[in-house]
Amino acid sequence: MVCSKCHKSLPEGSLVCGFCGNRLLDDKSQIEKNSNSSLTLPTKTDSQVALPDLQPQQQTEIAVPDKDNDKKIEKEQIAKTAEALHRSETKLTRKSLKKYKPMSTIGFFFTQLVLYIPVINIILLFVWSFRKNTNRNRKSFARSNLIWLFFNFLVLIAVIAAIVMVFRMPVYQQQLLAILDQWRTLLADFINSQIPPAA
Question: For a tag site, which of 6, 10, 67, 166 has the least CB within 10 Å?
């Protein structure tokens, strides 16, 4: 069986052409009428435009949303997100874990013990304050001590400057010399009293 419009071969008993959509029922009646009058089917001429091959549309099934399946997918996504966060947290190195770990009482004890050593304490305060991998608690403690040290240094300079300014006056200079003479005599008497007399 052939379609009269697009001349494609079709299975017997077809009512509509699956390629161009032409109704074959009218063609059947015309063919039966023309067969009595011994007419042949019209052939395709150059003036006719060839239509593209049209495949029959496939029936698509409508998916019914499944609430239980959506909940399962949502739970799986939440579990994957939590696992990714856990992996990112476990990537922290030991140095970074030590950096954010709270200092114990023993740690504070030895930190303060080291700060009683002269010169070394100032060096360690600067190291702990500006080193990257230092524990956060020790770093804050060192910075607070540096601030207090700087403040005390400023106060000391101000006191020394005030004393120098005061004792540069002639009245206070004479009093200062008198006090120094008294201390010198007291110190000499103390030393002489400690020395045993010669036999």
Answer: 67
DSSP lists the bridge partners of residue 2 as 9
Give dist(CA 56, CA 157) in Å, integer. 99
**Rounded alpha-carbon distances, angstroms, from residue 142 to 50, 105, 125, 133, 136:** 90, 16, 5, 14, 10
Q: Give the residue carrying structure tokens 């400057």.
A: 161
Cα(193)–Cα(136) distance, rounded to whole angstroms? 58
pLDDT in tens, 16-46: 787 787 777 655 555 555 455 444 455 555 4
List of long-range contacts for 115-123, beta carbons under 8 Å, 24+ apart: 115/145, 122/149
Query: What DSSP character marks residue 34?
Result: H
CB of 25 closer than 8 Å to CB of 3 = no
